[in-house]
Amino acid sequence: MTETFQRSCEHWSEDKRLEMDAFYALATADYRILAEAMDWCGWFEERQHAAGARALRLLDVACGSGKFPLALAKHAGLASADILPVDTALLDPSAFSISEARANLPEPFKAGEEHEIPLQALTCPRGSFDIAWATHALYAIPPSELPTAMERFLHAIGDTGIGVIAHSAPTGHYIRFHQLFLEAFAQDPAQRYSDADQIVAALEARGAGVSTRNIDYVNGLPESEGKEIEAFLQRCAFDDRFTLAMMRDRPPLDGYLDSCLRDGHWRFPQRVTLMFVTT
Question: At what angle do helices 17-35 and 226-236 cross, to 10 degrees?
Answer without folding.
Answer: 80
